[in-house]
């Protein structure tokens, strides 16, 4: 019996079916995850697979977006009979009047009917609401919705991201001491290697990784040295439990909420210049063509010689002078080796979305937004991190050690993607290499559209105990090892490495399959919160400080008009048909035209911001 059938035959589902006058074995009863559209109809992703089922508005019966439900899929009287699990616990919104809140998320019904309790919020206040059961309860009042910092507070509260650490966790962290000679025993001593460097963003304080590259007569020796967080965070300790609960650090537009207290994340574990630090090292030997000859994984101690920013490292890699000769040599060796390694990953392609950077003045006020530039050093460091992650994956695989793998499944079908590229005039044929296709169209104006369409076809990456592959990187036995200061999954991998190396640590054993599910779900929650806050910042900037004109790209033809993504700011809005010049418009899914004008997907267009709907996050454009 499948899991879905087991759930359907559970006591609550049987009771719900009988209460509706149905036989629990009725084939029209299905379980699955509900996704609700802002216009309050939904789609059900069935546990048993197959096409998503349409759920009309009356059939929602109080179920919310994200609910796991029992659905009666009947032509005449469809209905959600039971919310088996409410996976969204909280939401934020603006208080309208007693008993009514306008939810921030347009997928939720509006207004939400609430119980105020003892709180007395004012009209226009941003509030936190519990969605556990209707009528919903008011939990917290953040104050006026337009006050500085309120939007961030609300988004973090909904995602259950806490800024402060519990007292017991801080107390444990404060007891930890700087590593000394006794901690260096049974570790490979690499402190005298003057060529070990760290390369990070300007504002970073948590330096997870350091790199050394030495040219040899027959190739290269590469060292990837990763902070040994497992030497400080013991399984089952208050520090460990809090790190596991947080799952990862959270990167906001102007600050970081770390997974570990600052004593560890910015000091004891951070690979700071000139400080002796405990690490795990992955030591490679490559020949002159970038072919791996050998690799060793070991516990080590290092003393980073130089801390560099990505910008400065890129300058030196591209010929700038002014650094210590050993640093300059290391950086240029790094660049040469990374180029060789990248050329050998023939079937891999970049799945990175473009990103933006926020510009702040001396007083901390945001004064601009710009597209982030990926420089040479970013690509070089990433190449070495990928190599280390896969090497540790092979190390644990060969040792038959259970751990958490980073699985990225490929698309279930490329039919829609192939059809889209054909309509765009850039046909992709399934028998061809995706990596070569993406490289071939990279400089075309439609490239961003093609990548966006492809990303929609991809399931999200996840953590799993099943040895699997990473589709985007074209790597087998891939896992996350290189960021244990900011990701709990990496800490789990470090502990597995310890055990294979013969180091036994006391503490509880974890249910790794369940932990993988929790970390994957938490990652999605955190990424969603980070993304929402970035978009809100950009929308506020556009609304208050820069209405344009802005260059954009037409990415979709929708019912209301043209969906346009701003090239520099990477946010989208709608340009209504009514705004477009000329007479009557004829549209299909790829273009809009009349007797005078033609607009096609991928075309560049200049627009101005007419207004911003803060609730839906939608921008309204004009020409």
Question: Explain this structure to me?
Answer:
The chain has 623 residues and is an alpha+beta fold. The protein contains 14 helices and 33 strands. The protein has a five-stranded antiparallel sheet. Strands 6-7-8-10-9 form a five-stranded mixed β-barrel. Helix 3 packs antiparallel against helix 14 (512-544), helix 8 (325-344) crosses helix 9 and helix 10 (415-424) runs antiparallel to helix 12 (447-457). It starts with a helix and ends with a strand. The mean pLDDT is 88.
Quick overview of this protein structure:
With 623 residues, the chain is of the alpha+beta class. The strands form ten sheets. A five-stranded antiparallel β-sheet has the order 3-2-1-4-5. Strands 6-7-8-10-9 form a five-stranded mixed β-barrel.
User: Reading side by side through the largest sheet, how are the strands ordered?
Assistant: 3-2-1-4-5
Radius of gyration, rounded? 27 Å
Low-confidence stretches: none
Number of helical elements = 14
Largest sheet: 5 strands, antiparallel
Based on secondary structure, the structural category is: alpha+beta
Helix content: 25-40%
Beta strand count: 33
- Straight-line distance between termini: 58 Å
Beta content comes to 25-35%
What's the rounded overall pLDDT mean?
Answer: 88
Question: What form results from the Cα inertia axes?
Answer: globular
Which terms summarize this structure?
five-stranded antiparallel beta sheet, 623 residues, 33 strands
